[in-house]
Hints:
By secondary structure, this protein is mainly beta. The protein has one domain: Beta-galactosidase, Chain A, domain 5 (Distorted Sandwich). The protein has three helices and 24 strands. The strands form four sheets. Strands 7-8-9-10-22-19-18-13-16 form a nine-stranded antiparallel β-sheet. A hairpin with a 2-residue loop joins strand 23 and strand 24.
Amino acid sequence: MSSERGSSPASSVPVSPSTPHPHVVLCKGINGLDKVVLRGTRGSSAEVYLYGGHLTSWKNDHGEELLFLSSKATFKPPKAIRGGIPICFPQFGSHGSLEQHGFARNRFWVIDNDPPPFPTNISNKAFVDLILKPSEEDMKIWPYSFEYRLRIALGPGGDLLLTSRIRNTNSDWKPFSFTFAYHTYFSVSDISEVRVEGLETLDYLDNLQNKGRFTEQGDALTFESEVDKIYLSTPTKIAILDHEKKRTFVLRKDGLPDAVVWNPWDKKAKAMTDFGDDEYKHMLCVEAAAVEKPIILKPGEEWKGRLELSTVPSSYCSGQLDPQRVLLGS
């Protein structure tokens, strides 16, 4: 089956003849956009739109949604989808002539039926490989040739794994540099009941204070107002504790030294047309990123950035959840 956009029939079909099982299905999503549905063996699932290579849903074995997607998200290109996991490439943030957070999140990706080898758990059948290459129009705004391969997989236990491989394919020996983020929107019960552990005592750049550099003072991050910070040289593991749901998200990352923490709070939420006025209460972005020091690739070189998301049940312990067991555990 061709992987070109629009070539799929309306009914659900396996992504390719090599995947005759029900774990990976290509079908139509909102506004007729192509999406891939991944189904884990125990009931977990994920949904990925080819528009943006954009994860819009990740559910656990009980069918509970773990990602936040705005009720006002528009699935109308060229606007990016609000929520889920947008891909920020070739830049995070807004500077220069490129649009905010780059263009990968509002381009049409195609299914990559001939990817290079990925180390994959042989029991993990629920995965899809996508690829993005620049169009002529892209080359006008960012004049570099690249291949961006993205594998999205559901682990046997319902964990979500994203692996990005970006290769410089310039034929004129030009290097290029980029910044990057998996702009993950987590679904939380109440932002005032959430704490983030693993970023204590670290330096951060505060986007609300002209990117000034500060040092985190608290023993954990809690939220009482708008936050937009880039934490630097972060550990490979970060935990998000949701007291009300007694659930802890665990981020494990590789090749992504920074972590962005963002919540727009009330005023900015009301100013966004694709975001509900009160939805800031039920989301938190904690993003595995490479922002402070751009990644530089010479022709033929490849960069890999990996993110693994999982959840563990949490219980109260001396009035708090016990994140250290999570952070120091497996």
